[in-house]
Every structure is written in structure tokens, then in C-alpha cells.
Specification:
alpha+beta, DNA polymerase, domain 1, 2 domains, five-stranded antiparallel sheet, 5 strands
Length: 201
């Protein structure tokens, strides 16, 4: 007696045809809060926000479910029920108000989690024989990068204020400008946002 070739299918558990077994959680599932850059009216009703997520600094939008979330400049906890799910948006899709508030939001995010960002200044090395990672920052040339390496020494810096004092720069502002440039042009390489802020290392 031959075995029915379809018999093994009967005993298999039902499986979702769209489930590949791979996690579908995107990069936004780890975000704990959103700094609101702008609030927009939705058609036909309701509101949505454009914001900067924390800790990974994604540009996002979300439906507003709580009418007390009504203006830019506030932080909203993603698990509070005040906003809907986050979705990523492009820099060019930001409103003028969002664009105007973005640099300050990045600076606030850096200052609220300094260790993550301070690591760049303490670990930066040569990218090639003639190009140091410090030169990725706006306005930093070769001679300034060499001076910064000497000032850093072997022990590094413990605060942004220490960097600013020893190197004569505005370290948070320079890092914020670099991040802003990468948000505007995601093809910039290497990406400090990906290496410092969004990596799971």
C-alpha cells in the first residue's frame, strides 16, 4: 500500500503565508520618545506630528491621539497612548516649522544622552593616511584635527565642555550639524548617525 504524498501536509500546523519567520520589527520599535517638531492638521480630521525620535534620531510622523499634545517643543513618550505608531519620513518632507526646529532638537537629544555622542570625540581615528574622522565635522580641517588629537591625549575627554575648552570649538553644535547634514543627504558616508547613534553595539 503506497502512502498518500499529501498526508504530511495534513499534519503540519497552519502557517501564515506571509510569515517568513523573520522579525518584522523595524528600527523604530526601540524608540522611547519623540521630540515634537511641528503639529499638522490631518484631512478630514485630527492631527499628526512631525518629530525627532529618541534615542536613535529618526525623523518620524505619528497620529496624535491626545489633544494635549498640541505644540512643538515637547517630548512625548511613545508608550503613553498619546500618539499612534511611528513612521519614518524624509528630510525633504518636513514642514518649514519642523526644519526650523530640527537643529535645536538634535542638540537637545545629544545633551540628553552625552555618553553616546561623546564617544565620537574619544574614539575618532584616521580614516585614511590624510583624512581624520574629526574632519567629518563642519569646518574642521587637517591642522585642527591634528590639534584635537593632541589635546585628547590618551585619556580622552569626560564632557563636551572639556572638549570645547581644550580645542576652542562648539563640539555639540558641530556634531548636530553633521547629523543634520546626514538627515538631509542619507548618502553621506561614513554616517555618524548609523555608527554612533543607531547601531546596537
Amino acid at each position: 500500500m503506497s502512502e498518500d504524498p499529501l498526508q504530511h501536509l495534513i499534519s503540519m500546523p497552519a502557517q501564515d503565508p506571509f510569515d517568513s519567520g523573520i522579525s518584522h520589527e523595524g528600527p523604530l520599535h526601540r524608540e522611547s520618545s519623540v521630540f515634537i517638531l511641528d503639529v499638522l492638521d490631518r484631512i478630514p480630521s485630527g492631527s499628526e506630528l512631525q518629530g525627532l525620535s529618541k534615542p536613535s534620531m529618526y525623523l518620524v510622523r505619528a497620529r496624535i491621539d491626545d489633544e494635549t499634545v498640541d505644540s512643538a517643543g515637547k517630548d512625548v513618550d511613545t508608550s503613553s497612548g498619546s500618539i499612534g505608531p511611528l513612521s519614518e519620513i524624509r528630510f525633504r518632507d518636513l514642514t518649514e516649522e519642523s526644519s526650523n526646529n530640527l537643529n535645536e532638537a538634535i542638540i537637545e537629544s545629544i545633551n540628553s544622552d552625552p555618553d553616546r555622542h561623546l564617544g565620537f570625540y574619544n574614539r575618532a581615528n584616521n580614516l585614511s593616511l590624510k583624512y581624520h574622522a574629526f574632519q567629518l565635522l563642519p569646518g574642521i580641517g587637517n591642522s585642527k584635527a591634528i590639534q584635537m588629537v593632541k589635546e585628547r591625549g590618551g585619556s580622552g575627554w569626560s564632557s563636551f565642555e572639556q572638549i570645547d575648552s581644550s580645542c576652542g570649538i562648539e563640539s555639540v553644535r558641530l556634531l548636530a550639524e553633521r547629523y543634520l547634514g546626514e538627515m538631509n543627504d542619507p548618502s553621506e558616508s561614513p554616517s555618524l548617525l548609523e555608527l554612533l547613534v543607531r547601531s546596537e553595539i
